[in-house]
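Re: weekly structure request thread

Next one in the queue (236 aa):
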Amino acid sequence: MNISSSKYKTILSWSGGKDSAITHQRLLKNNQYSVERLLVSVNESTKRVSMHGVRVELIERQAEILGIPITYLKLSASPSMDEYNSLMEKQMHNLMEEGFTHCAFGDIFLEDLKKYREKNLEKVGMNALFPIWGEDTDKLAHSFIDDGFKAIFACVEKKKSVSDYVGETYSKEFLDEMTAEIDPCGENGEFHTFVFGGPIFSESIPHQKGKIEDKEYPSPKGEGKMVFRFCDLVLG
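Done, posted below.
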């Protein structure tokens, strides 16, 4: 791949889901940035993407098709914020030594999270990018589908009206049927997706749907437990 030396060498925070894919699509159209690494947070014991529960081998197949190597942020099963921050800072220092100057995220409207990312990257002398920040999530969701992306609901919050969609395709039918409590892009954590095809990929990622199961996690606000329903996606 012939990368222009005038472009900023950029890391993309990658979950394998919809917002990551849209962010990469935007950066491909921007002549200022060159995405040359995917940063993936994984549970080291389960070998799955943190929160999304997607198997690493599916993420690696995405990366292979995109032609972009992965740097993993290997986390324990229930990492503290101190653990996460320490590992992230170490990885950012390592990536800076490789010449990276920017890290891009697919955040849309969570202001606290944006400030958190900016503050922590500033500590190590890197720049944060938010290519889809502030955009209308309904328009983003529809354009994602109109552009030919294909995604599946990998993880959903069980107590929300989206819970029955786990393992189903992210579609306009879903957008038409969803209730007002659900953000069209799942920006409040209502659901997470795995993208298996679309304009940024030269071929689709073959996958099969496995077991569906529920798991409990502590609420980030300290208000008891949250229950998420996962569809175990398998490569092939």
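The chain has a mean pLDDT of 94. The helical segments are 18-28, 56-66, 81-97, 111-123, 137-146, 172-177.
Next request, please.
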